[in-house]
């Protein structure tokens, strides 16, 4: 007898406003071997919906959700520290 584990449920970890943001996040997650998808991306892309009407949900497997969220938070924290300070003079 061959036993199979049930498929891992997909969970939403983020909602985005743009295709570009989704592509960056997908690339970041996939570089960490975290598969991600979006049920909204193809509809958004094909129909060219206005971001104010449609969000792009980012989904990962439930077993990878904690790692995915931590990775995104870490990336966001690093992007904020890389931004120039308003008080910095060139």
Number of strands: 3
Q: Numbering strands along the chain, what is their spatial order in the largest sheet?
A: 1-3-2
Strand content: 15-25%
Radius of gyration: 17 Å
Tally of contiguous helical segments: 3
Mean pLDDT: 81
Give start-end ranges of low-pLDDT stretches. Answer: none
Work out the count of structural domains. 1
> How is the biggest beta sheet arranged?
3 strands, antiparallel
* Overall outline: globular
Describe this structure in words.
The chain is an alpha+beta fold. It has one domain: Alpha-Beta Plaits, CATH 3.30.70. 42% of the residues lie in helices and 17% in strands. It is built from three helices and three strands; from the N terminus they run βαβαβα. The chain has a three-stranded antiparallel β-sheet with strand order 1-3-2, covered by helices on one side. It is globular and about 60 Å long. The termini are far apart.
Tags for this model:
90 residues, alpha+beta, three-stranded antiparallel sheet, 3 helices, 3 strands, globular
Provide a compact summary of the structure:
The protein has 90 residues and is α+β, with helices and mostly antiparallel strands. Helices cover 42% and strands 17% of the residues. The chain contains 3 helices and 3 strands, in the order E-H-E-H-E-H.
